[in-house]
Design brief:
The chain is an alpha/beta fold and about 375 residues long. The chain folds into three domains: about 5-110, 3-Layer(aba) Sandwich (Rossmann fold); about 120-180; about 200-379, Rossmann fold (3-Layer(aba) Sandwich), CATH 3.40.50. The chain is about 55% helix and about 15% strand. It contains 13 helices and ten strands. It has helices at about 15-35, 55-70, 85-95, 105-115, 120-145, 155-195, 210-220, 265-270, 270-275, 295-305, 325-335, 350-365, 365-379; strands at about 5-10, 35-45, 75, 100-105, 200-205, 235-240, 245-255, 280-285, 315-320, 340-345. It has a six-stranded mixed beta sheet with strand order 6-7-5-8-9-10, with helices on both faces. The longest helix has about 40 residues, at about 155-195. The radius of gyration is 24 Å and the shape is globular. The N and C termini lie far apart (about 70 Å).
């Protein structure tokens, strides 16, 4: 039986109802991916979250009553909570009624852990967990010191907390050292590819936009293609032959982006995202059947800027045209003409030759020109 989940979000008054709905819809998709079942969604409109319990004392009582009535197992807050806010909510929900309290980062990390296969992915997830959990340990220490030993003394609780904090620091250092070895190996591989003249293309996009399917269709690389968020955590690389240039390039797929992706997650997945950082060209894959596509495009731009990739050449790949009617397709072509997009269906392999031609012209302009001249000379 799937665990029952209650979702909670604090929405400032200036946020539109459409954006409020989109935020909670995304959180519910994350819950679905994790394997939970949303029984109710609660929105509280206020400018700032409550500094003690995030959702306000009266709302805590209301949600707790609902959770007990519906026999919910989880309360998930659609933001990153401060340690004190989580601690106080756990006292009401977890300590008394065994209802787990997570914020959005806890949920994402749980999904990451579910999908991790390689040693690199598992290390990156462990690093992100350590960084997310560390500040909470400090708060626990303060609370235990208040409740147990007196001011100015060292009680057992404080001692245990210090031991845990030291263990986290040491483990984080160890994980970082292991990830640095992975990055050194990747850097060595990138140097070899560069020395052999390989140009590289990185596929990016909002999670579940069809990036892995595009990699598979372009390169025949066997990758997991699933209709769920964060199905891909590791960087995968395949070879792509470009007929227009009569040469090959390398194409990589990586972790999907998401709204409000915390800096600690971006940093933890640095080794995976490095393929994007060092790529010669970026393919930004967009799900054009998604009603929220416009703000998702903005989210991807924001993450690319965070990675300092904003100045790279980008090809916008509008995916899933097999799901569109002709009039909708024509409307999108007019609205996004400035992006000079390529409309494809990665699943049906529609218009992939056009995409290959565009990649070739950007990466190998001289080779394309030479191949075209040779072809004309033979006619």
């Amino acid at each position: 039986m799937l665990p029952k989940v209650i979702l909670v979000d604090i929405i400032p008054p200036q946020v539109t109802p459409e954006d409020s709905l989109a935020r909670l819809n995304e959180l519910e998709r994350l819950v679905d991916t994790y394997g939970g079942f949303v029984v109710i969604r609660k929105i509280q409109r206020k400018q700032m979250p409550n500094y003690r319990t995030y959702i306000g004392t009266g709302k805590v009582e209301e949600i707790l009553k609902t959770a007990l009535e519906l026999k919910a197992s989880y309360l998930i807050v659609n933001n990153q909570m401060k340690p004190e806010q989580l601690y106080n909510l756990e006292k009401e929900f977890t300590d008394k009624h065994q209802i787990k309290v997570w914020d959005k980062i806890d949920l994402i990390l749980a999904i990451f852990a579910k999908h991790a296969v390689t040693k690199e992915a598992k290390l990156q997830i462990e690093l992100a967990k350590l960084r997310h959990f560390g500040p909470r340990i400090s708060k626990m220490g303060v609370e235990l010191m208040r409740q147990g030993a007196g001011i100015g003394t060292r009680g057992k609780g404080e001692t245990n907390i210090e031991i845990m904090k030291r263990h986290i620091r040491l483990r984080e250092r160890g994980v970082r050292n292991e990830l640095e070895k992975v990055e050194q190996s990747q850097e060595s591989q990138r140097k070899k590819r560069h020395d052999h003249g390989f140009r590289t293309v990185a596929i990016v996009g909002y999670t579940n936009a069809g990036k892995s399917q595009l990699l598979k269709s372009l390169t025949k690389k066997e990758v997991k293609v699933k209709d769920e968020l964060f199905a891909t955590l590791d960087s995968r690389i395949g070879k792509l032959y470009l007929p227009a240039a009569r040469t090959e390039c390398l194409v990589s797929d990586t972790i999907g982006f998401i709204r409000d992706l915390p800096p600690q997650l971006i940093d933890a997945f640095h080794s995976t995202l490095s393929e994007t950082v060092h790529a010669d060209l970026i393919l930004h894959v967009i799900d054009i059947d998604d009603l929220d596509m416009e703000w998702k495009i903005k989210v991807v731009h924001e993450v690319l800027n965070t990675l300092k990739c904003g100045g790279k050449k980008i090809v916008y790949v509008f995916n899933k045209i097999d799901l569109l009617q002709l009039d909708r397709h024509e409307d999108l072509e007019r609205r996004f003409a400035l992006y000079d997009p390529v409309f494809v269906s990665a699943k049906d392999k529609t218009n992939l030759d056009e995409l290959k031609g565009k990649i070739a012209k950007i990466l190998f302009p001289l080779e394309v020109k030479k191949a075209l001249e040779n072809s004309m000379a033979l006619q």
